[in-house]
Amino acid sequence: MSNLDLWKKVEKTDTKYTKPATVNGRTFTSIIPTYQQMKATDVFGPRGQGWGTVPGSETFEYKEIGTTTLLIYKAVLFYVYNGERGEIPMGATETLCYITKGGKGYLKIDDEADKKVRTSAVSKALSELGFNADVFMGLFDDHDYKNIRHMESQIEHSENKQKEIDIKLTECQSWLDREISAIASLTNANVVTTVTNSTDNRLMQKLSILNVSDDAKSELQKKLYTVAQETIDKLNNK
């Protein structure tokens, strides 16, 4: 058994359960917390039995910074995997209340801070075990990766998976034709090589998801690299 068995089992995120979020002007992908807890339940068992918060481990601390009060939460997460119990510390901080800016500032209180701080702590702790690692590692910032995960999710949720795979294969072939056409129009041989290699990498990822045979993969690769080489030869002979 590899030390990464659990990580690899839970690292990929279903795009159906993600949404964009903005904090301090930065936009990123966030995970719907209930989905993350559902995945933990699927792997470990019901919350409170296979995983959860160690009873009596929760502490709440209130810290005032100027006119802002922070709620600091600490606890211990337990989980049972392959018959063995593990524990990791978890914690999070939320703004409980603050004075709003402006001439008529008033005290704004977050009456859901307790729930938010617990949810945030659990999410961070599960991420340390590998849950939704692709989001936390920033892979969802890569447009190509996000599209590939979306393809996987669509196939997974389809009632007729083979029909969905056939549709995606047709879309993949059309995508490849567009990429090949773009490569043929490039005017720098080095750029042709770079773009072709990148396209090949994305192509192999798509075809692997679609369970395409090795022979079919080779044919599509040959089509890509034939045009790339023809383009390079034409540029070098100018």
Write structural notes for this entry.
The chain has eight helices and seven strands; from the N terminus they run αββαβββββαααααα. It has 238 residues and is an alpha+beta fold. The chain folds into two domains: 5-138, Enolase-like, domain 1 (2-Layer Sandwich), CATH 3.30.390.80; 143-236, no CATH class. The strands form two sheets. Strands 3, 4, 5, 6 and 7 form a five-stranded antiparallel β-sheet that branches. The longest helix is centred in the C-terminal third of the chain and has 24 residues, at 161-184. The chain starts with a helix and ends with a helix.
Helix content: 40-55%
Mean pLDDT: 92
Contiguous uncertain segments of 5+ residues:
none
CATH topology of the largest domain: Enolase-like, domain 1
Number of structural domains: 2
User: What is the CATH level 1 assignment of the largest domain?
Assistant: Alpha Beta
CATH homologous superfamily classification of the largest domain: DNA repair protein Rad52/59/22
CATH architecture of the largest domain: 2-Layer Sandwich
Question: In angstroms, what is the radius of gyration?
Answer: 24 Å
Structural class: alpha+beta
> What is the first-to-last residue Cα distance?
57 Å
- Structure annotation, total helices: 8
What is the strand tally?
Answer: 7
Shape: elongated
In terms of DSSP E residues, the strand content is 15-25%
